[in-house]
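STRUCTURE REQUEST FORM
Protein name: Bacillibactin exporter
Source organism: Paenibacillus allorhizosphaerae
Requested output: structure tokens
Priority: standard
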Amino acid sequence: MEKTKQRRLDITFESDVSWKPKGRSRGQEENKEKKGGESKGRIWEFIAIASVPLVLVLGNSMLVPILPDMQERLGISQFQSSLVITLFSVTAGLVIPISGYLSDRFSRKGIMIPSLIIYGAAGVLAGFGAVWNSYTTIIIARAIQGLGAAGTAPIAMALAGDLYKEGTESKALGLTEASNGTGKVVSPIIGSLLALIVWYAAFFAFPIFCALSLLAIMFLIKEPEKTKEPMKLGEYLRSIGKVLKEKGRWLITSFIAGSVSLFVLFGVLFYLSDILEVAPYNIDGVMKGLVLAIPLLGLVATSYTTGSLIKKNGTVMRWLINIGLMIMTVALGLCIFLYNKNIYLFIGLLTLSSIGTGLLLPCLNTMITGSVKREQRGMITSIYNSLRFLGVAAGPPLFGWMMEKSHQMVFITVSTMAFITLGLVFFLVKPKGKVGG
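Status: completed
Returned output:
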């Protein structure tokens, strides 16, 4: 892409040699102005795209701190309150592939804009459900929010693949993953602070964030025009089947790796959140949110740095993916023996595991979005994100069940999963040269 731009600029310069001021040529001045304008425009595009995964996380994770209050105020069980989170994730995970197809059939913004509207409006409905003390209204609203969420972050990933190429694409995808992680860091803290006003304030605050993201997508992103007529459904499904037949071995392995990494991340955070509230730590509220932010900050910093550096280099990505999974395996394996020895060491190991996840995810995102043509990108990235959502949804309940059996069982399970995933990736995911080239 950069070479093409340079060639166009060179042609412009060579075709106008009659005017030659002292110092910089007019062509050089124009080049500088164009690059400066493009750089500023690209920064705003990055911000707009990154706002979508941030809003997606805020709409879910901000509610985690208020679940105990919800149980008390509405007179519901712990299982019923957990459905506020789980039902949202399951609904989104099931609907994401449909949103992916529609974004390929029509346009990315054509799906993202109404999805953000639905997402925000359903948040307002959930807020009124809380005011009315109606658990049924809240649950219905959360399911509707899941429908809206399905057309947000997964489609933003495909949009980044449409807009950018080469290293810029990997940087944009790394930024979206970092934005996702940032949302996980700040949302429990924001949720706890809002609960100081009134316990259901987070329901009404979220649509404000959603509206800002909606405006950013509407006015800061110019989607590339489609150059081909959309395929009919039958032809489209055959093309997806062909992609999976040709690249399924490493694509499906990459899907599994992304799902496992987020299952482990959310499950471990759920575990940490639970043990911090009891003796001998007795940490709750905003302070607990700050402690939970430590592993997530490791994820955010690593994701952004990884996305900025890999530049679609397949060899580098393969090394980082395997190193990330090795770090996760070792860190989680050590937790089997050290989880109850020293809280500082334990949080350090969990942060190390999150750093491994931060090495892994931007590489997977770049490989998957760059593996297919624009016409199938929405569906492929949606399948990937659907499995990620289901991994997130499965984490807390399965970790809760394992914690009832044995705390060591938790870390034996997750370290084994990381090790098996490492084996699959090592033998089946072997990108070389320039990914997507």
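Reviewer notes: Residues 38-220+229-428 form a domain with the Growth Hormone; Chain: A; fold (CATH 1.20.1250.20). Residues 154 and 381 are 6 Å apart (CA to CA).
Form closed.
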